């Protein structure tokens, strides 16, 4: 059966709509299955539909246009179906904090970090008035923070040429999706450069320099995400 009680609520914010519905009637063996919903919408003057798949019975449409059409349908999925990463809703158990306020959440390791819809519900409580929950949908590759590179090595050849190498960050992100930022220090001079490879050849600026150090951080590049998030810096590697 189709989902029931489908309605569109206008909360009074310009360009913002809240869509909600109820599960279909007569679901057999509901305890052993979950329902995935496909929501489609389009402008009335367009023939093409935009489709979203989700497991919640609501959706927030920001920047909504006038004269849009919406429709929703559902399908049963067995809990043991092939789905990488989190297969059910989880409450955050490890918040990141700033000045005692929750500003983020660390989730368990996800097997696949690319092109998966990731649904977030942010809620809260207040003694003065109810707080409406906010819902967001992301693609994982746009919000993932990679681990920093490790096993840095520094080799000096012919007293001038330097070879910098490091291992790929651990995790499921393909090598082609990384960009690296390298901070280099030669004696008292520091500069920063970037590369898409996990090695770099450079030349010392002075034959008399006594120390050379570098550290690296990584993020998912613009070919694999909208805008990646830089990892923490690696441990420093030095030559004297």
Automatic annotation (TrEMBL):
<dbReference type="InterPro" id="IPR003961">
    <property type="entry name" value="FN3_dom"/>
</dbReference>
<protein>
    <submittedName>
        <fullName>Interleukin-13 receptor subunit alpha-2</fullName>
    </submittedName>
</protein>
<feature type="domain" description="Fibronectin type-III">
    <location>
        <begin position="148"/>
        <end position="240"/>
    </location>
</feature>
<keyword id="KW-0472">Membrane</keyword>
<dbReference type="InterPro" id="IPR013783">
    <property type="entry name" value="Ig-like_fold"/>
</dbReference>
<keyword id="KW-0732">Signal</keyword>
<keyword id="KW-0812">Transmembrane</keyword>
<dbReference type="InterPro" id="IPR015321">
    <property type="entry name" value="TypeI_recpt_CBD"/>
</dbReference>
<dbReference type="GO" id="GO:0009897">
    <property type="term" value="C:external side of plasma membrane"/>
</dbReference>
<keyword id="KW-1133">Transmembrane helix</keyword>
<keyword id="KW-0325">Glycoprotein</keyword>
<dbReference type="Pfam" id="PF09240">
    <property type="entry name" value="IL6Ra-bind"/>
</dbReference>
<dbReference type="InterPro" id="IPR036116">
    <property type="entry name" value="FN3_sf"/>
</dbReference>
<dbReference type="GO" id="GO:0004896">
    <property type="term" value="F:cytokine receptor activity"/>
</dbReference>
<keyword id="KW-0675">Receptor</keyword>
């Amino acid at each position: 059966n189709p989902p029931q009680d489908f309605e569109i609520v206008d909360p009074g914010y310009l360009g913002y709509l809240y869509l909600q519905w109820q599960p279909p009637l007569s679901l057999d063996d509901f305890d052993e299955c979950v329902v995935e919903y496909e929501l489609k919408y389009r402008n009335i003057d367009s023939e093409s539909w935009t489709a979203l798949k989700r497991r919640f019975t609501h959706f927030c449409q920001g920047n909504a246009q006038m004269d849009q059409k919406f429709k929703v349908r559902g399908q049963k999925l067995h809990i043991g179906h092939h789905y990488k990463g989190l297969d059910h809703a989880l409450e955050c158990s490890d918040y990141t904090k700033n000045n005692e306020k929750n500003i983020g959440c660390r989730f368990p390791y996800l097997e696949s970090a690319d092109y998966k819809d990731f649904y977030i519900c942010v809620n809260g409580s207040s003694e003065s008035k109810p707080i409406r929950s906010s819902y967001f949908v992301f693609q994982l590759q746009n919000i993932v923070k990679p681990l920093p590179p490790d096993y840095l090595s520094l080799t000096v050849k012919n007293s001038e040429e330097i070879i910098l190498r490091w291992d790929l960050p651990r995790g499921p992100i393909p090598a082609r999706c990384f960009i690296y930022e390298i901070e280099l220090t030669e004696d008292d001079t520091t500069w920063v450069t970037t590369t898409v490879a996990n090695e770099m050849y450079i030349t010392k600026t002075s034959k008399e320099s006594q120390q050379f150090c570098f550290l690296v951080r990584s993020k998912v590049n613009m070919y694999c995400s909208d805008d990646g998030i830089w990892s923490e810096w690696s441990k420093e590697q030095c030559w004297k």
